[in-house]
Amino acid sequence: MQNNILITGGKGKTGRLISELLTQNGIAHRIGTRTPESGSEIAFDWMRPDLAEAAFSGIRSLYIVAPTNTSDHGSVVPPLLEIALEKGVQRFVLLSASSLASGAPMMGKIHAWLEANTPEWTVLRPTWFMQNFYEQRHLVTINEENAIYSATGDGKVGFIDALDIARAAVSALTSNRTINKDFILTGPETLSYGDIAAALSKALGRKISHRNLTTSELASRLQQNGLDETYSKILSAMDNDIASGTEERITDGVKALTGVNPCSLDIFIQRECHRWKV
């Protein structure tokens, strides 16, 4: 099947990898970005409906990464998806989250809208990314304090490699079949933050500790590091959910979409070891 694909969030964590995979397979696509810099990129912003018609022109399959500068996704995103339908987009692939079922806040609202209004849709609901440990706040504390801070206790997560999410997205965008289903995506094993610290210790040759905090302590720490109060509380509450066991599950979602098993943490760390101080 020939595809004309638009990747929103095309320079983000999954979008960049999707673009690389499509390029490797010789599949033409566009990258939607607020700051286009090349011929394969086009101006796109969920907060700028005036850009939508040009961005969606000639597109059949759309990868949706919701905007990060608002949590009101149910109001912001569907009006632009209406424009996409009018311009002939047939297939919609949404990046959501394992914790957000159809109808839930944020991406859950987009999920419900896709189910009700689009001919072909897939919702990818990954759990927490392995990449988080070499990006954002964890990278700093691992390198500078030999520590990972969380409020997850002994709770476990089926951490997933973003590359597996990208492979699942490419499959959904280019498949010859209509999927119309959501997939919870996990890695091959459930791991606590203590397990992550132990794996990093072994690979890096230095002791990395997991320092467990209360949710209020974590929220305060995040605010001290520059996050606003509301977002700090949301992240702390997510850690509390992990502590209570809500993410302790393994699914076959990656294999169902790609035909291959997801990457393990040990393989991921071997591949990305250069990201941390050794």
Strand and helix order: EHEEHEHEHEHEEHEEHEHHHH
Mean pLDDT: 95
* Total strand segments: 11
Please tell me the total number of domains: 2
- What is the C-alpha radius of gyration, as a whole number of Å? 19 Å
Give the helix/strand class.
Answer: alpha/beta
Architecture of the largest domain, according to CATH? 3-Layer(aba) Sandwich
Q: Give the overall form.
A: globular
**Strands across the major sheet, in which order?**
3-2-1-4-5-6-9
Annotation field: number of helices = 11
- What's the CATH C level of the largest domain? Alpha Beta
Q: What's the CATH superfamily of the largest domain, by name?
A: NAD(P)-binding Rossmann-like Domain
CATH topology of the largest domain: Rossmann fold
> How can the largest sheet be summarized?
7 strands, parallel
User: What distance separates the N and C termini?
Assistant: 46 Å
What are the low-pLDDT stretches, counting only 5+ consecutive residues below 50? none
Share of helix among residues? 40-55%
Percent strand: 15-25%
InterPro entries: Ergot_Alk_Oxidoreductase (IPR051604), Ergot_alkaloid_biosynthesis (IPR019901), NAD(P)-bd_dom_sf (IPR036291), NmrA-like (IPR008030)
Pfam families: NmrA (PF05368)
Protein name: Ergot alkaloid biosynthesis protein, AFUA_2G17970 family
Pathway: Alkaloid biosynthesis; ergot alkaloid biosynthesis
